[in-house]
Amino acid sequence: MDQTNWPLIYNGRNRLNRKRVTKFPCDGCFMHLDRCICSFFPNLHLKTKVSLVIHAAELKHTTNTGRLAIKSLTNSEMRVRGFERIRLDLSDLLSPKYRTFLFYPSDDALELNEDLVSQSDLPIQLIVPDGSWRQAFKVHSRHPELKDIPRVKISTPNTATHFIRNETNEYGMATLQAIALALGIIEGQEVKEKLMKLYQAKLEQTLMSRGKKITHL
Ligand SMILES: [Zn+2]
Fold it and tell me: In angstroms, what is the span from residue 144 Cα to ligand 1's centroid?
């Protein structure tokens, strides 16, 4: 993805990996009410299904972006791991209605590209582990029901100079960005751009809430 035209530059020390919790968040976007970005949510009805697998602790962080994607996509769902040490069983996600892939860059992961997408008429389900790379690795390695699901990756380098948090996922980008790129490949540019607009709003409001200086290119 070409990110050279991103409109924001963050000047200052990048110390964005602290745990952040907003006391009175907006019910829609989980940002502080003064920084609500709900007007940026697209309402996308796609053939592709996105299933987000997220750790319960991750949901408390205002820096989480995966659930913003879920709110933007009518054909999506969220499964929460880490409740009371009970292992989450994801086997019911594996519907024959979909070609299911786990979005994880293991050594044997296939490149998610147009060629792969065109190999079947079945719609795609993308199971997306949300959170840090460690949490994503647990979804990849600790769910036997996902053992035979092909892994997919995207090789687009992330050249962004500013982030919502330092510890990002295995792609070095926020989950919402990674989903935007993947859906751009599967569903087209328009979908990607709408989700990236939401991501930009989230990034801008998050950095501004920290008093960071942002300049537009
Ligand atoms: Zn809101």
Answer: 37
